[in-house]
Amino acid sequence: xxxxxxxxxxxxxxxxxxxxxxxxxxxxxxxxxxxxxxxxxxxxxxxxxxxxxxxxxxxxxxxxxxxxxxxxxxxxxxxxxxxxxxxxxxxxxxxxxxxxxxxxxxxxxxxxxxxxxxxxxxxxxxxxxxxxxxxxxxxxxxxxxxxxxxxxxxxxxxxxxxxxxxxxxxxxxxxxxxxxxxxxxxxxxxxxxxxxxxxxxxxxxxxxxxxxxxxxxxxxxxxxxxxxxxxxxxxxxxxxxxxxxxx
Length: 247
Ligand SMILES: Nc1ncnc2c1ncn2[C@@H]1O[C@H](COP(=O)(O)OP(=O)(O)OP(=O)(O)O)[C@@H](O)[C@H]1O
Description:
This protein is of the alpha/beta class. It has 2 domains: 1-70 and 153-246, Rossmann fold (3-Layer(aba) Sandwich); 77-151, no CATH class. Helices cover 39% and strands 23% of the residues. It has 9 helices and 9 strands. Helix 4 (108-120) crosses helix 5 and helix 5 packs parallel to helix 6. The structure holds adenosine-5'-triphosphate (ATP). Adenosine-5'-triphosphate (ATP) binds at residues 14, 19, 37, 39-45.
């Protein structure tokens, strides 16, 4: 199909219930794409399958030889355990893991890059703070600093602005635009349609099945959003019918 990542008739299921259903399409190299759809539409499942954290039931994801290092992934904050006693600098340092390996040590140059990345996200001097003491917005900045060090060709973000304040969102959107200008491929799961219209040229709209994938202005029509909601509701009703739960 000719993208940097191609999704080919992809179905991914939990306990035989498909969360992603026969989705096909391509992420063009250097594209900036929002993945949108109602709750339970399969967005996170699609992202995890692209990263390689979940396996397709049928179909496949073609990564064209991109190695682990080439794909960076930011999970939803809710999936990250912040009780671990680690400080900000060491968290960002994990972004160098691909370069230095498990047992390698970070050279002064590496620590300088970590400090620079923290300054870039507006957290200069925060290196020694424990991550448990940060606000949600500050922690998201730390995770973006880590992505900066990872230096990956493809960056996947799962709801990067959920429960994040406006100021932080604006700063992190600027970093996403910068990645786009550098020619990286960025894919983000988002819920705010205005934000998508303003900042994301491409949109993938799904309700387990694909509703639309292309230029945001063409995909995000009222009609398509209504269709996505109706189809998602249909899946829920079917599931409840099959399991005997009330809708
Ligand atoms: N670990 C799991 N085990 C069983 N079912 C799951 C699991 N994770 C997700 N699902 C189901 O798969 C479907 C798709 O979930 P997914 O998280 O991919 O959707 P989403 O579009 O990211 O939703 P949201 O916008 O609410 O985050 C949902 O019906 C969900 O309940």
